[in-house]
Write a structure and sequence with these properties.
By secondary structure, the protein is of the alpha/beta class. It contains twelve helices and eight strands. The protein has an eight-stranded parallel barrel with strand order 1-2-3-4-5-6-7-8, surrounded by five helices. The radius of gyration is 17 Å and the shape is globular. The structure holds phosphoenolpyruvate (PEP).
Length: 249
């Protein structure tokens, strides 16, 4: 059986105090799932606080991005090693907001993925089409190119340690969700592309869905055969909503 992961992306939200409150809310609620691993990705400044509160719990911690470099004169950046030292075990890479506002390309995301894997972090590599790309019938072209570009030259062993998140850009933060059938069709397509890279890795690699996942739509999405979890933005900022999504898994 493939791993199932429910991940919260807290984006640019959360002082240390707010992060601690949210972590305590998760620990005090029924946030443990028999089936799914649970992960939260706070802002960098709150990572250490989250890690220390969640240490020895069932909830892992991840970064929202990282540099492709080990170190150097790169103002504002953070390295894989730095994430590891504050207890992160995952890192989100190539989120559409990074692609849109920071001009991140597949090539850059690939370099970051290589660095994350070499350092021992699990990369969650995001792909997804815009509304215009979907409406012009280019979803598979776009997602296929993102999969090829971001996973380029990863060994089968590295692919087995990687997570992909399909996040249609038009569904992120908009309240519009892909129907379970629409999402499953793209997840199946991604799985087929992974098979072409390595059969065994394609079977193992979790593909998460992201885009306005909420307590009322999570079960339908998560019941699809190729949807192995969720990357949750807005709803992960409320402990009760995130717990309901975990329980839907
Ligand atoms: C995200 O940030 O990855 C995301 C899917 O956000 P939301 O759940 O708010 O659409």
């Amino acid at each position: 059986m493939r791993r199932m992961i429910i991940a919260g992306n807290w984006k640019l939200f959360g002082t240390i105090a707010e992060t601690e409150n949210l972590c305590k809310g998760l620990l005090n609620g029924k946030s443990r799932s028999e089936r799914a691993e649970v992960l939260v990705c706070p802002p960098y400044t709150a990572l250490a606080a989250a890690s220390s509160l969640l240490a020895d719990s069932h909830i892992a911690v991840g970064g929202q991005d990282m540099s492709e470099y080990e170190g150097g004169a790169y103002t504002g950046e953070i390295s894989a090693e730095m994430l590891l030292t504050v207890g992160a075990t995952f890192v989100i890479l190539g989120h559409s907001e990074r692609r849109q506002y920071h001009a991140e390309t597949d090539q850059l995301v690939n370099a970051k993925a290589v660095r994350a894997l070499a350092s021992g972090l699990t990369p969650i590599i995001c792909v997804g089409e815009t509304l215009e790309e979907r409406e012009s019938g280019r979803t598979e072209d776009v997602v296929g190119a993102q999969i090829a570009g971001t996973l380029k030259d990863l060994s089968a062993e590295d692919l087995k340690k990687t997570v992909v998140a399909y996040e249609p850009v038009w569904a992120i933060g908009t309240g519009k969700t892909a129907t379970p059938e629409m999402a499953e069709a793209v997840h199946r397509f991604i799985r087929e592309r992974l098979v072409a890279l390595d059969n065994e890795a394609a079977e193992m690699l979790p593909i998460l869905y992201g885009g306005s996942v909420k307590p009322n739509n999570a079960a339908g999405l998560l019941s699809q055969p190729n949807i192995d979890g969720a990357l949750v933005g807005g709803a992960s900022l409320k402990a009760d909503d995130f717990i309901a999504i975990i329980n839907a898994a």
